[in-house]
Structures are given as structure tokens and as C-alpha cells.
Amino acid sequence: MKTQNVIQVEGLTKMFGDFTAVNAITFEVKKGEIFGFLGANGAGKTTAMKMLIGISSPTSGLAKVAGFDVYKETESIKKNIGYMSQKFALYDDLTVKENITFFGGIYGLSKKQINQKRSELVEELGLVDVTNSLVSSLPLGWKQKLAFSVSLIHNPKIVFLDEPTGGVDPITRRQFWEMIYNAAHKGTTIFVTTHYMDEAEYCDRVSIMVNGKIEALDTPKKLKEQYKTDSMNDVFLKLARG
User: Fold this and answer.
1) pLDDT tens figures, 85-103
2) 145 in helix, strand or coil?
3) Which fold does the domain 32-54+74-241 belong to in CATH?
4) How far apart are the C-alpha atoms of 69 and 7, rounded to whole Å?
5) Nearest residue to 191 via CA among 174, 203, 179
6) Euclidean distance between the first and the last CA atom of the chain, given in angstroms as a whole number
7) What's the pTM value of the predicted model, to 2 decimals?
């Protein structure tokens, strides 16, 4: 049986005046896949992600996310995805409990569901003793793991992670990726941007964007074979240099 595509993109383009930020990209992402979306700053990956999550309208091209059209069904897309940004994922001036309650409400959960999910989350993450502490008092690694868990609170089909492990220590990064694997194992599709090339190795497939275009897309193993190297960092550097 053919694996279901939960993201389908064809010729997707975004222009700002005469500048083409995303240039006719085409790809698909399968259900339960960990899909790495790589590129240097300014390559267009964040702009592309914004179109996919329904907060920026494409200039041209086609795209469906969780079966919904990015032009006409953005509200349906938002209900079926989770999103975690490196820069803004939780409210520092709210407690752990208040953050979970707030985002549970945003994602449309009932009070009963929120209470149940909150109990499960703080237990799983070992945050029972700090449930009533401000998020600002937590170490960055705990914040990131909590933010990821909150993005999954409504059991979305797809979770978009924008540089989720930026600035955290190697041990926390490894723990975070264990959480990603666990979510993918349960059938959640993970769409992740990262500038850590070693993390590309953890993905089922990766695309590499250069100047608004996808210049390579395959499994890490096949990309390393194609570019005759044992390092994804070398693959990236070769593509970036043209």
C-alpha cells in the first residue's frame, strides 16, 4: 500500500516585489516521516514554512497540508498541525500550568481534556514540582521540551519545528530528538528545520535549500553517497558553494 502524503508541494513560490524568496519548490512528505528542511539563513526555508502553516499566502504554485489547501483552507490547516518556534513557543510570564492550559484552549481542547493532558505532560517531563513556577525560571532545555509537548497536546497530524534545538546543550538535544522519534513512531509527521548538520542524520529524508531553491532532496545516506562524503556537513557545503 502506498504511504500517504500529508504534505504535497508543487512549484510553490513566494515573491516580495522583484525578489524571489522561494523559487518553485516541489516535494512531498509522508505520514510519520521525519523530514529535515535545511538551508543557511536567508535560503528561504522559514518563508516556505510560513506558507505551509497558513500564515503567509504563496505567490504561485500548489500546496496541501494535512489534505487542506494553503490558499483556501488555512484555518483547517492550523487545527491539524502543531508549531514550535525557537524564538517564541511559550509565555515566560505564565506558569507551566498556565501555559499548558492556555495552549490547550487555543488548540480547542475541552477543560477536561486540558486537565488530563496537563497531568500527563508534567508527569512525563518530570515537571510536577515546578508546575506553578514561571516558565522564565526553567532552564532552556526544559522550556524546549515543554514547548514541543505543548505543540503535540491536540494530537496533530503534523508538527512543524523551527530550529527547535538552537542554543541547548548536546545532552538536551539528544533527549529532544528521542521525543521527536517517539512522536513519529506514534504516526505524527515531523517537519523540522535545523542548522545543525549532524541532526540531518536523524531525519528520514532531508531537503537542502540554496537561494530559494531545493538543490537536493533524499535520505542522508543517499545524499552522502551522491556527493562522495561521509558527512552531511560536507554535502551542505558543496551545495552552498555551487
Assistant:
1) 877 679 999 999 999 999 9
2) helix
3) Rossmann fold (3.40.50)
4) 10
5) 203
6) 38
7) 0.92
Cell numbers given for 112: 477536561
Cα–Cα separations (whole angstroms), residue 217 to 76, 98, 235: 28, 40, 11
Kindly give the pairing relationship between strand 158-162 and strand 81-85: parallel
| Cα 8 to Cα 67: distance, rounded to the nearest angstrom | 8
Please identify which residue in the block is written with the cell numbers 558527512. Answer: 231
Which strand ranges, in their side-by-side order, compose the sheet holding 158-162?
Answer: 81-85, 158-162, 189-194, 34-39, 205-210, 213-218
CA distance 212 to 107: 32
Cα–Cα dist 90/146, whole Å: 9
- Please check whether residue 159 is in contact with residue 189, taking contact to mean a CB–CB distance below 8 angstroms: yes
Q: Which amino acid is at 238?
A: K
CB-facing half-sphere around the CA of 23: CA atoms within 13 A:
13
The helix/strand/coil state of 93 is coil
The domain spans of the chain are: 32-54+74-241
Does residue 223 contact residue 206 with C-beta atoms inside 8 Å?
A: yes
Residue with grid cell 525557537, as numbered in its chain: 86
Range 145-153 average pLDDT? 93
Which tens digit of pLDDT belongs to each residue from 6-64? 999 999 999 999 999 999 999 999 999 999 999 887 889 989 999 999 999 999 999 99
